[in-house]
Each structure stands twice: as C-alpha cells, then as structure tokens.
C-alpha cells in the first residue's frame, strides 16, 4: 500500500491532469506494489497458454471438433497462431503448454505437461478426478516459478481448447450461483440452436452436481473444477496462485482465464490483488466475473479469441503508459505549479 501511494505521488508530479492516465496509473502502481519497488520492471514478458481438450465437446456445444485444439496448439508451437503474431509485435514470448490435449503433440515449441488425454464428458461423469485438478493447479504454480527463475517480470494467461467456453461458463455459473444464460455465449462462433444446447448442457450439469445453490461460497472450488472444469482452467487457477506466491503480476485474458481467476480467489482469498485485468471478453461470463472480483479491464473490444490475445494487447498498453512514468516530465520542467488534489 505504501509503495502504491508513493507511485501515485510520482504520477501526480508528472505534468498532466491529475489521474490523467486513469486506471493505467492505478495499474502501474499495483504492479509496483507486487514487485515491491517504485521502479517498475515489465521489461521481460511472456504469455502462458495452456492447451487442453474437453470431453463435453461430444454434446455438440462447439462449432469445432476436438482435433482443432491440437492443430492450433501445434501452430502456436511454430509461432504462427494469433497470439504469436501479437506477442511478436508486443515484444513478448509465448509459452505454449500441452496440459491435456487428447492426442500426442509433436513438434518444437511446446512445453509438455500433459496430465490426461482430455477430460471426461461432464454430463456423464465428473470431468476430472480431484487428483488431476490438484496436478493441474500444481503445473500452473510451477510454470510461474520457472518463469520467475528465467527472469520474466510480467506474465499473462492464455488458453486453447475447443469447448472451453462451456466448461468455463459452467465453472462460473457454479461459483456465482447463476443460470447458464447469464454466463454462456457463442464461444468460437456457435449457432443459435447450438447456444440453446449449450445452456441445456450447463444447466443439467449444475443440477447433476447440485451446484444450483445460493450459498455457492460453501462449495469448494476444487470440487467445481473437478466436476465441470477443464485441465486448462485448473492450470490457470494455479498460474494465478503462483503470481501471488512468487510476486509476479499476472495479466488476465478473457472469459476462460477469468473463470480460473475467480476459482483462485475462492481458494486463496486476496489473490485477486496480484491480477491485472486486460479486456472484457464478449462471453457474458467475463463481465460478471469482473464485477464479482472488483476488477476494471481497460479494453472493451468484444474480443472472443482466447490464446491470451487480449492480455498481450494489454502488454503494449502498459509499456506505453510506463514510458510516461519512467521518463517523467515534471510540472517544474515546464514552469507550471503542480496541481492540487481536492479530495
Ligand atoms: O477468451 C475468451 O473469452 C474466448 C471467447 C470465445 C472463444 N475463445 C476461444 O475459442 C475456443 C473455445 O470456443 P468453443 O466455442 O469451442 O467453446 C477456445 O480455444 C478459446 O480460446 C475464447
Ligand atoms: C482456428 C481457431 C483458433 C483458436 N484460437 C483459440 N481458439 C480458437 C478456435 C479456433 C477454431
């Protein structure tokens, strides 16, 4: 808090209207507080992209088949997917991880941390065992530990997994105690009929696992992840926890990352203080989670791409905001009296 206050004082000494850079000022202050220094270091950035398959896809809740997960992951490994193009432009690395793709992944550029060949169809049985959830959370924590050791100072979350807008919506609905229609959207481009089916599938699962309660906080988030989550979401939950453990700010991407952030906050209250919001996804779950966590993303671009693309966009915005903070032009430099704060 003391560091955040000092950073805010530095912002106020820069020749500009008070709070002129709005939430960017508070976000930079928060990054400083996490790093424990008024000198901010976000020079070394990476997006951790967890790739996994979801058994629920057999229920017709996605326009794509499961094999697409592997194809996109391999393209990511070759540096060719959307997030790779954006990361190159932003001067960041992409760490593509196979945490649960349902086929053998070949090729360079993929980190192999496979826990299972996809999850189970959660309408028939729980998606994962508790053990698998804990393994995935541990993988996420270890990835952050590794990144910290390698000198990264700012990380972001991303994922790739056909069907994961259904799993993340189900996790969100269970954690917030709301029906499917409040959180589920068209994902990677689902038809109107497909969306109705998606609602049905999620609502049936909420009933099956008795997650239709008003006192949702009494349900252990690990049980929710095991029943209706995915290996990517569980892994990302670990990434957020790792951010707190190793004091690395974690920039959160879209609706799937947001579901993981909410699960992390339920498991480790206070972990949200280490999370930097980026954009609000087109999926309805995203806005609801931001509200619940009290986070205010700066990009509202109706993006629905995943892979960490919104978070990587935020990397560049943070670099731009930081350039004003680092190369301070003070009021004294332009012979103007510093503004007084009237509140
Ligand atoms: O980040 C988001 O909010 C987001 C919104 C819509 C789609 N996606 C991406 O699209 C895929 C999931 O879409 P779906 O329709 O198969 O559930 C998955 O690979 C995600 O990365 C991601
Ligand atoms: C091609 C494609 C790329 C993606 N990246 C993230 N989700 C995706 C879904 C599809 C279908």
UniProtKB/TrEMBL annotation:
Pathway: Nucleoside biosynthesis; alpha-ribazole biosynthesis; alpha-ribazole from 5,6-dimethylbenzimidazole: step 1/2. Catalyzes the synthesis of alpha-ribazole-5'-phosphate from nicotinate mononucleotide (NAMN) and 5,6-dimethylbenzimidazole (DMB). InterPro entries: Nict_dMeBzImd_PRibTrfase, Nict_dMeBzImd_PRibTrfase_bact, Nict_dMeBzImd_PRibTrfase_N, Nict_dMeBzImd_PRibTrfase_sf. Its EC number is 2.4.2.21. Gene3D superfamilies: 1.10.1610.10, 3.40.50.10210. Pfam families: DBI_PRT (PF02277). The keyword Glycosyltransferase applies. Belongs to the CobT family. CDD domains: DMB-PRT_CobT (cd02439). GO terms for molecular function: nicotinate-nucleotide-dimethylbenzimidazole phosphoribosyltransferase activity. This is Nicotinate-nucleotide--dimethylbenzimidazole phosphoribosyltransferase. It comes from Kineothrix sedimenti. Keywords: Cobalamin biosynthesis, Glycosyltransferase, Transferase. It catalyses: 5,6-dimethylbenzimidazole + nicotinate beta-D-ribonucleotide = alpha-ribazole 5'-phosphate + nicotinate + H(+).
């Amino acid at each position: 808090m003391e560091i955040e206050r000092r950073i805010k004082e530095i912002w106020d000494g820069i020749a500009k209207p008070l709070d002129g850079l709005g939430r960017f000022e508070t976000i930079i202050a928060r990054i400083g507080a996490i790093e424990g220094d008024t000198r901010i270091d976000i020079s070394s950035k990476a997006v951790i992209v967890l790739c996994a398959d979801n058994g629920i896809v057999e229920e017709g809740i996605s326009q794509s088949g499961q094999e697409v997960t592997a194809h996109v992951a391999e393209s990511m490994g070759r540096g060719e997917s959307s997030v790779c193009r954006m990361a190159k432009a932003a001067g960041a690395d992409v760490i593509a991880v196979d945490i649960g793709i349902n086929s053998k992944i070949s090729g360079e550029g993929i980190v192999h941390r496979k826990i299972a060949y996809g999850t189970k169809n959660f309408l028939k049985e729980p998606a994962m065992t508790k053990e698998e959830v804990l393994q995935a959370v541990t993988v996420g924590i270890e990835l952050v530990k590794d990144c910290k050791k390698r000198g990264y100072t700012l990380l972001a979350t991303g994922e790739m997994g056909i069907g994961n807008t259904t799993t993340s919506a189900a996790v969100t609905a269970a954690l917030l105690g709301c029906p499917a229609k409040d959180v589920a959207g068209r994902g990677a481009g689902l038809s109107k009929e497909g969306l109705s089916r998606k609602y049905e599938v999620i609502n049936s699962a909420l009933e099956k696992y008795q997650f239709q309660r008003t006192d949702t906080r009494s349900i252990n988030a690990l049980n929710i992840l095991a029943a209706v989550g995915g290996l990517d979401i569980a892994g990302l939950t670990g990434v957020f926890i790792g951010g707190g453990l190793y004091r690395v700010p974690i920039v959160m991407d879209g609706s799937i990352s947001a579901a993981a952030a909410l699960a992390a906050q339920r498991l480790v209250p206070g972990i949200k203080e280490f999370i930097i919001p980026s954009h609000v996804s087109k999926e309805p779950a995203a806005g609801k989670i931001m509200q619940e966590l009290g986070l205010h993303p700066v990009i509202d671009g109706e993006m629905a791409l995943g892979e960490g693309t919104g978070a990587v966009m935020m990397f560049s915005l943070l670099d731009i905001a930081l350039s004003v903070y680092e190369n301070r032009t003070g009021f004294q430099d332009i012979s103007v009296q510093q503004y007084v704060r009237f509140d």
